[in-house]
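Observation: inputs received (chain + magnesium ion).
Thought: call the complex predictor directly.
Action: predict_structure
Action Input:
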Amino acid sequence: MTRRKKKRWEDHQLGHIGRREARTAFYKDSANRISLNGEWKFLYMEAPELSPEGFMNKENGSQWDTIDVPSVWQLRGYDRMHYTDVLYLFPINPPFVPTENPTGIYKKIVSLNKEWMSHDTILKFHGVDSAFDVWVNGTHAGYSKVSRLPSEFDITDLLQEGENDITVRVYKWSDGTYLEDQDMWWLSGIYRDVELINEPKNSIIDCAVNGDLDSSYKNGILKADITTKEKSCEGTWKLERAGKEAASGVFRTEDGKVHLEEMIPEADLWTAETPNLYELTVSTNCHEIKVRVGFRKIEIIDHNFCVNKQVILLNGVNHHDYNPKEGRCVTYEQSKADVLLMKQYNINAVRCSHYPANEHFYDLCDEYGLYVIDEADLECHGFEWVERYDWITDDPSWEQAYVDRSVRMVKRNRNHPSIIMWSMGNESSFGCNFKSAAKAIKELDSTRLLHYEGDYEAEITDVYSTMYTRLKRLKEIAEYEIKGKKPHVMCEYGHAMGNGPGGLKAYQDMYRKYKRLQGGFIWEWYDHGIYTEEGGETYYRYGGNYGDFPTNGNFCIDGLLMPDRTPSPALLEYKQVIAPVEVTRIDGTQREFQLKNYHDFLTLEQFYIKWSVQGEKKFLQEGNIDHLTALPHETEKVIIPFTPFKPEANTDYYLNITVCRKEATQYAEAGHEISKVQFPLDIRYNILEERPQGNALKVWEAENILTIENDGVTVRFHKVFGHLLSVSVKDKEYLSEGPRMTVYRATIDNDMYKKEDWMEKYFIQKSSEQTEYFRYKEAQDKVTVSVGKYFGCYNQSWGFQCDYEYTVYSSGQVKVNLYGKAIQNGKLEPAFLPRIGIVMKGNKELQQAVWYGRGPGENYADSKEAGVMGIYSNSVDEMGTNYIFPQENGHREDVRWFGIGDGDKTLLCKAEMPLGLNLANYTDESLEEAKHPFHIERAEDVIIHLDYAQSGLGSNSCGEEQQEEFKVKLQDFTMAFELQVVSSGEEVKEAKRRYLD
Ligand code: GAL
Ligand code: MG
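Observation:
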């Protein structure tokens, strides 16, 4: 005897009741529609069984709540928010789900007139999470599932003229949930559009097209399969390009079907770089639909995947449906903004991770030009946890469930030229059900490539896909026939969680070097923070902030875009790393450059170079070069015609080369920059001047304080602690604490696996200094203070023996030389350190920052492709990046000098060698503690970090660590810089002055 009866939503072998066969989402359709978006009556319950009697009848429901559709009910005050990456929120007992199964009954009255009633009515749900039943006027009309795919029901027979009741009961948990364990918030409800379609009797039900190419790769072959509702139906078709007819004809269906094939000579081909679209109009006497056609061919040639015979490289991102206020409800406008931004940032590919997107998303990709990996709504990651990963994946009783998810995706989306691969899902191990899904996809559409990362052996896929593969392994894949000869793609890499990822350049270099490697997709586009206003604060919540447990916390804050759509520094970096034109200087020359055209289809004719000669702040010469010609994948040489000029003393000169689009495109204005690089010019000359002299310095000691002073400056030291205490001018303290050594930075997400060792074994945040000696020497015009210190962290045998030499000049400058010698008296030591540097404090009134170094944005050792040298200014606050989950941020590399000022006076700091800089209004400790930006406490001073070196970012929250060259090892170091107070506005002038001593 069976212990329990399967409920409808626990029957994995029941695909649906009454759902129509999946079909193309037409681009345009003459059939009338009524949108059912908007207000619905809503009843929330803890289990479907609690439904009130007769809930599906029209007379009930008036007392219920009201909810707007589309929406997810967790963001409308029902149920609760919960985020997990891998874990199911119930015992693994497939196909059964908890009896406590949050359920929403939606009800809407729709009025239909006589004319409407003369046609058929299709009720279309674009997306309901996770399974649902539908009743029309009290009668059961159907049942469906698969959250991220549409479901259509023919409800003609259940309707009447006048008012009609539509009731939908949505189940949060269903057998389908076992296949929907993607890394994201658990959200439920009718979250995509709902509509009624008035379908004429003689209508076109489906039209599957393929814009193929003949062997010349020039002529298009239009292939269309039309399905009509009537068994025999006549009609016409017309193919147009930009309003001009390219071909046309008539058709007659037999048994409701007809196949058309037509040669289109010299077709304008579709690629992501040239998104040329044709429009096919198919008409019957009472119905007209339009679908768009892109002529292009995807195939594998000599073990590489090609578009129109050209090997392409994917510079992609992973895209989830997400909105900070609406969860998984995404509007056309938002999708369009995403696609535009991707195009503007040189991205050419997107993976719909890990489910099909809204219909309109693909239209946008077709139109603007992005290669798409479309992925079936399928992930059962939680099974890995119980060490039976292939439990349902290899269980034939689930076969239909797996196949259904792929087949419906293909049937809906196959007309989109942008889709180049079908992916069968994500993180679901491998087994017989994927083999069946693969077969079903190939039978439906053999014109695209098959992808599934979980086919680890690349047994049935066309591409060998891996995720977060380390560089070493990637190189092996590239150089040896690992898993055969199939082309490789990295479906996920570069984990954009928090600050990072760094090290992208190394990946791009590999993709560009090895033909087998055809690019990858950054994880991921968006931070999935949930907009929250609470207690006067506005912030974004992540896992755990709703008391949700278990959770993966801020693992959902891992995008290139912040929730408010601010591009993160990593997006700027990615843009530059993947820039399709690479500019390198030809060895041994100053002005000769090689351009490599990484476009797969565009020649450089559409681009021009804007160059300028920059002397730190000033631009001396500039010009354009616009006769570029390089063919795709080819190089050309350019000579930048700057003329000799007389350099100013003590000034660095750079040549900036920017590659721009000549014409406006659909996504950017004319002149849009696709790449900006900078090359130092070797024309610096120095003039050293005598240091000016001030009045004689007085030196005195009182209560362990050593004061050195004249009318221009007051400098104080603590003799016992060996610190520079302050630098003041006219009773105002500018420097409120001198250098103290540090090896710590507020943990970034990409250091999460180092954190415990760093902070609980090596105690890098717990350092202290021991004064070894304190001496001073007066000379004419200067006083030299020498301090010896031992720096170390709690219970560590490693540390630094430091010699600080301070020279206070009568002219008001304080020169600091620091020599650090690495010490190890035992054995234990960290493999590397976050940084080696010093921290100082400035008067909190000094909020205007200016620096000469890399900028304008944040940059780090392994993420500075987008940072170029220049003199930049900003407020101290604006120098930081407000990461949703607070962490180290706002760093600038290669800083030669900086100042913080109050508009009147500026504390200027000139470095003798390039140093790293952070300026902030908070301490590292407060940053480390904070769980949200509003937790960060404002410090009493401006916190100034100067780094001898700071480790890179890496991508180790998921993926590669910092590469060796970007790890700061325990090592000897020196730092030298000079502090002085100058008039605000005089920073640049003062910074240039170099002295003889
Ligand atoms: C991958 C997974 C993604 C996401 C990522 C971590 O393993 O496919 O969905 O979870 O890791 O952010
Ligand atoms: Mg997963």
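Thought: report the result.
Final Answer: The first strand starts at residue 28 and ends at 29. Residues 85-86, 183, 379, 381, 427 surround magnesium ion (ligand 2) (CB under 6 Å).
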